[in-house]
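thread from #wetlab-drylab

HS: before we spend reagent money on co-crystallization trials with zinc ion, can we at least see a predicted complex? here's what I'd submit
DV: go for it
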Amino acid sequence: MKPTLILGIETSCDETAVALVDNTKHIRAHALASQQQTHAPYGGVVPEVAARAHLEVLKDLTHQALHHAKADWPDITAIAATCGPGLIGGVMVGAMFGKAMAAAQHKPFIAINHLAAHALSPRLVADIAFPYLLLLVSGGHTQLVVVRGANHFSCLGTTRDDAAGECFDKSAKLLGLPYPGGPQLEKLADAGDATRFALPRPMVGQAGADFSFAGLKTAVRLVIEGKNFGAEDAPHLAASVQETIAHVLAERTENALSMAGKVEALVVAGGVAANGAVRQRLQAVAEKNRLPFVAPPLWLCTDNGAMIAHAGLERLAENPTINDQSIACRPRWPLEEMGG
Ligand code: KG4
Ligand code: ZN
């Protein structure tokens, strides 16, 4: 029998990515074009610029991925693309490209929720059974979710204002670091002493698993604007911001574990999961609760095509006759609104 081979397309933010994943979860190819240089002068992603840039590279990236995997269209079982949530112009570029290729090649199309793809991504590299508790931390989202199946999620907590990644990025910007700030802030924090500045830890000590990061960002601004703050303090403040965010994420995760019922593992996904301090804190929470801790490799934490192809594989396994050609793109698409 021909192996199942899924083509995955990701265009919801500032990375254009295409990958091929087979039914043994082998990543046969992954091609990625980052737009970070394009958006850097603006200090953030410009949606219209992003959509056009996706359109320019998508066809070439797809050919690259097929070439690398030594595959051709007849070898593809189905085409999966992010249909939301995200910057809608970019999402539409990827989804329309995927739908058109699926129609032309007589393949099923699988609509992927970008958050679900992050949520399932650890299963691409580790043998984790459902249900597991997931901390999803990216530039747009901070959520604690029980993942029960490829299409079945229960949300225990979310942010009431900014996402953790946004807090990393905005604090980095205030510190004068270039976009995207998260990884830059982590580098700067390496040389810093996290005890030098005491920052507020929003929501810590309160019941539930919700987050709030807007106050922390304001506190960082006030420290920087203070008359005693000098350039030599930047690494210390970076370390304090990182330590505070990691602490808040870990404390809220512990609360969520007590709310979740029996779970098989603690899993972290999304761009902020690339942060070493965040991983360390969560690892400690998992150990304390005698749970395996799974964090995908760094390249799989940030946006990529392999997680989209893999989510497609999981959807196809649950529903072999799936075809989402008629599903519309959505700028907002909360995990709670997934089926199952
Ligand atoms: O999942 P992702 O690639 O894109 C979406 O938001 O969907 O996440 C990007 C976010 C950005 O806010 C970025 O600054 C943050 O993840 N990030 C990090 C690190 N790497 C990426 N934040 C802190 N430390 C890092 N090493
Ligand atoms: Zn993402």
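DV: The first helix runs from residue 36 to 39.
HS: ok that's useful, forwarding to the group
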